Amino acid sequence: MIPGTNPFSSDSEFDSLFPIYIQELSVLHFTPLNVALTASQFLAPDEDAKVVDIGAGTGKFCMAGSHFTKGQFTGIEQRQHFVRIGNKVIKRIGLERVALINCNFTEIDIHDYTSIYFYNSFHENLVFSDVLDNKAKFSTELYELYTAHFLKQLNAMPTGTRLATYWLGITEIPGSYQLLETYFDGKLKLWVKKG
Q1: Which of 94, 119, 155, 180 is least buried, going by the fewest C-beta atoms within 10 A?
Q2: pLDDT at residue 43, as a whole number
Q3: What is the 3-state secondary structure (H, E, C) of the chain?
């Protein structure tokens, strides 16, 4: 942590660690700290928790999760420049138990994680006015591909897997997941896989 500062004291304090264009994206596209606190405490109840954030952007949720809990946080992000910027901030503020990986989430198996965070990462494939930048490809076909892959991965996860969804665009979570609680006017939903 940078001496004399607490980047997790407010969203504006945290966002100030990033270039202006990232700060401008944060309000609409990155998880607010109060949401990250609630979600991460559910997803990482102990030090054995391994949380994956699908579509992590510059890693705000993962950084907050590693600050607020004792769990391990991994962010998957297809935009290389977001990962590079996020990893610089992680190093600058001295966070541990957090990593950002540059890849498309269809290229990895999330089976090794105990918990999943999903902030409607595929939405920009449906509403092009909401895209973060022009560095990735977008289409309704990609939305359908990503959604099908995500639901397949959720179905394959073991009993007890924890899932937090925020501003979920996908209409269905597999029936094996039980909705436990909702927060922030129903925008944050906390689920657990029952079988």
Answers
A1: 94
A2: 98
A3: CCCCCCCCCCHHHHHCCCCHHHHHHHHHHCCCHHHHHHHHHHHCCCCCCEEEEECCCCCHHHHHHHHHCCCEEEEEECCHHHHHHHHHHHHHHCCCCEEEEECCHHHCCHHHCCEEEECCCCHHHCCHHHCCCCCCCCCHHHHHHHHHHHHHHHHHCCCCCEEEEECCCCCCCCCCEEEEEEECCCCEEEEEECC
For the beta carbon of residue 121, count every other beta carbon within 10 angstroms: 21
| Mean pLDDT of all residues in 9-24 | 92
Q: Are 56 and 90 in contact (CB under 8 A)?
A: no
Q: Looking at residues 89-115, what average pLDDT do you find? A: 95
For the entire predicted model, the pTM comes to 0.90
- The pLDDT of 164-184, averaged and rounded, is 89
Give all domains of the chain, ordered by start, each with its CATH number.
11-193 (3.40.50.150)
